[in-house]
Amino acid sequence: MATRFATRQLRSALCRPSRFMSTAPPPKTLPSFSMQGKVCMVTGAARGLGYEFCRAFVSSGCTSLAIVDLKQEEAAAAAAELTTYARANNTDANPEEVNIIGVECDVSSEKSVQKAYADVMSTYGRIDSVVASAGIVENYSAFDYPFDRIKRLYDINVHGAFFTAREAARNMIPQGGGSIVLVASMSANIVNIPQPQTPYNASKAAVKHMASSLAVEWAKKGVRVNVLSPGYMLTKLTKTVLSHDPELQKTWERLTPMGKMGDPEDLAGAIVFLSSDASSFMTGSEIRVDGGYCII
Ligand SMILES: NC(=O)c1ccc[n+]([C@@H]2O[C@H](COP(=O)([O-])OP(=O)(O)OC[C@H]3O[C@@H](n4cnc5c(N)ncnc54)[C@H](O)[C@@H]3O)[C@@H](O)[C@H]2O)c1
């Protein structure tokens, strides 16, 4: 009961209007940034950054969207909320056009990922933009990290991203192309301190180079593969780490030139740019959104 209440509280916070929205008529912007008419899919989207990416797509005109996550109930709940959000905020769309679905999938299982794509293709008939956001982090020193947990982390963060990208490309190539964004991390480029997380850092470096390698394989087939690397953002993932060590947030903020953690909404512009036609000559690239963490 308490959990359900907490979930509802979280949900109403997530359904808040975007801080970039106002009641004034929308300002003119480049049409190439529009997600109108694109079928999108985001893994790990029942909450956290994945959910925020979905909100950004909806705010940019997307009406066909698959929310992929571990539990059907949570994916469906997020889909229902975003449907309400889309009908209220995507003023250009006919409310009947909004078709947002929740899809259960464990990205660490190739079969489960294939089943998710089959569901998406049978619903929409095509797929234009895919974001692989599902991922986990754990903090153990190298000597203490149990091997089964290391393996699970790589199964989700590395193999999950690979399965998600490969099935995306299998479906996108016959239709003429599409955009894939793999969510890595600033940890692909630097070593976080003070918390130990070697397998996580290595997994994100692998995701970054995976994107470059897949980008080369599929460049002439119309499929672009780019990377979004966030710095410290306030989501359930980081809140769990901080719950064990409240002082840690101050350390992270001190190490970040902008002096604060990011709001998940700070990634909205970058994800729409990478997923839309605005980045059509860009593949194998990384965008870091980290408050300047990596430059010092
Ligand atoms: N939050 C940050 O500060 C931060 C920084 C850099 C990178 N990232 C990366 O961004 C991504 C999203 O992180 P977040 O902060 O939103 O995390 P989060 O824990 O808030 O959300 C992750 C989501 O992924 C889902 N998920 C986990 N394992 C899955 C699996 N096997 N199959 C399908 N779904 C699964 C969870 O159910 C959850 O909904 C991760 O890849 C993470 O490494 C996060």
From TrEMBL:
The keyword Transmembrane does not apply. PROSITE patterns: ADH_SHORT. It comes from the Eukaryota. Keywords: NADP, Oxidoreductase. GO terms for molecular function: mannitol 2-dehydrogenase (NADP+) activity; oxidoreductase activity, acting on NAD(P)H, oxygen as acceptor. Pfam families: adh_short_C2. SUPFAM superfamilies: NAD(P)-binding Rossmann-fold domains. GO terms for biological process: carbohydrate metabolic process; small molecule metabolic process. Belongs to the short-chain dehydrogenases/reductases (SDR) family. This is NAD(P)-binding protein. It comes from Mycena maculata. The lineage of its organism: Eukaryota, Fungi, Dikarya, Basidiomycota, Agaricomycotina.
